Amino acid sequence: MKVDSIAMNTKIRSAYIHFPFCVKKCPYCDFVSFAGCLDKKGAYIKALCREIELTGNEQEIAESLYPLQGCGNREASRTNPGLATIYMGGGTPSLFTPEELQDVLQALRNHFGIQESAEITLEVNPGTVNQAAFLGYRAIGINRISIGVQSFSQPILTSLGRIHTSGQAVNAIHMAQAAGFTNISCDLMTGLAGQSLADVEDSLAILLENRVPHVSFYALIIEEGTPFFEKYESHEELLPPPELERSMYHLMLSRLKEEGYIHYEISNCGKPGFESRHNMIYWRAEPYYGFGCGAFGYRQGKRTGNTTDLSAYIQAMTGPLAELSGIVTESEEIDEKESRKEFMLLGFRIMAGVSAEKFRKRYNVKMQEIFGSNLQTLLSKDLIVHEKDHYFLSEKGIDYANEVFREFVDN
To answer: Taking the complete model, does pTM exceed 0.85, yes or no?
Structure first.
């Protein structure tokens, strides 16, 4: 089986760290997170740092066996500048103090290095932060804040089970700005029960008034196993019809473009220079580290997932015989065929689309030789556009993106 040579031979520049702690689990959320358990925060930080240490040691061995591109000897590897993006997500990472997060960043710095220009993002719940916390986060080197607003309508926030109020969301933006953060992203949701076009427009207007430079907007997905699944699976009439949700999406997209935001990914717009560098790693199907309970990583041609059992993760990483094999519960070899499909599938999420030349350089074969019939099918349906070297979603394709993705999933 031929593995993805890029994943095997490229220096890993990104790390995702998962913090599966919440004050209260949102009824629509299927991420790995646990309400309460805050008494385990200290032990979790120690476990994270241990996983980072063990992974760093393992990576050193791997690099000695497989010299990296641009790092053909050990001295070159030592002088390598380190991680370019770090993303702390959850759950609710903002339940942790700056001092606790500093321990994690220091572990990353010790074992992988962190570039001076690195993008370091922290997800924040508006109901869990204050001015001192933002100042502390800034002081330890975090330079990008992602705020889970979802909506500024109080009735909608209540129906979503969010712990914050509309006022707290606005205050979180102001406090982050006062602490010196200029790179701020806010999430908004569409397709929510009781939501109208006016609600969406009002929420977006608040972000624009407060000069938030990056906006992510996601449609509600009813995930099996969540309270919302039980509530809405057999009562779809309680949610906005698909055509109204699409109107919400296009309303936001139109307003953001009018204000000078770049629509660079299906669900993300940013002012020039404020695109999420970390998320682009995922969409370009490049390797990254994943640390923490329930975290996934992709390196050495393999995608691995850590245990979703919080106690088991902590015990395995803080015990005297800690080994990475003790926390990995999922492992999948990504061969070159699968990697090619992911290159296409994820690449079409980006508005710039996929590059035939980059595909050829990565896989040493022409894109049309592998996916020519798939691309032709999508072109015939007006779901994608071909210009020069790139294939990308058409205006119609944006609304039927899942059909585009399926063309490569089922290939």
So the answer is: yes
